[in-house]
Write a structure and sequence with these properties.
Elements (H helix, E strand, L loop, with lengths): L19 H10 L16 H11 L6 E5 L5 H9 L2 E6 L5 H7 L6 E5 L10 H4 L11 E3 L1
Parallel strand pairs: 1-2, 1-4, 2-3
Helix pairs in contact: 2-3
Length: 141
């Protein structure tokens, strides 16, 4: 997806935290509005992001499965800490934004899908995690 000239540039730099205003601008520039039936709330508060990251105790050896990355604020922070981040987003409208944001992040994989549609017994295999030998911990956030 190419951005229109009027759209804000996408970035995953540490200094470019998604503020509430930036989220509104980004969503409206793509004609996207949060859907109540999907329970969409976009995490943007730096303090909340920091608390989630600290509480997770993620190490550089970990693989994290993030369910509902939204616009990627938490994904951005997870990618700094984890070996691999698999972000599963149900809302197809957000996939092009996420893929562009993380195109330069080799440890982030964006998947369009519904985590609830994957049978629990096949989930690691469905996510390409058949070989757990290289994983110290498997997180779902």
């Amino acid at each position: 997806m190419k951005l229109k000239p009027s759209q804000p540039p996408l970035s995953t730099s540490a200094s470019d935290t998604l503020s509430a205003l930036r989220v509104k601008t980004l969503l409206s520039s793509h004609d996207i509005y949060p859907q109540k039936q999907l329970g969409q709330n976009f995490l943007v508060t730096p303090k909340a992001l920091s608390r989630v990251i600290e509480a997770s105790a993620i190490t550089p050896e970990d693989t994290v499965v993030e369910v509902g990355p939204g616009l990627g604020a938490l994904t951005q922070e997870l990618a700094k800490k984890a070996k691999r981040v698999i972000a599963i987003e149900k809302d197809a409208r957000l996939i092009p934004i996420l893929k562009e944001m993380f195109s330069a992040s080799p440890n982030v994989e964006i998947i369009h899908g519904d985590i609830l549609s994957l049978p629990e017994s096949s989930m690691p295999r469905s996510l390409g995690l058949e070989d757990r030998s290289g994983l110290s911990t498997f997180y779902f956030l």
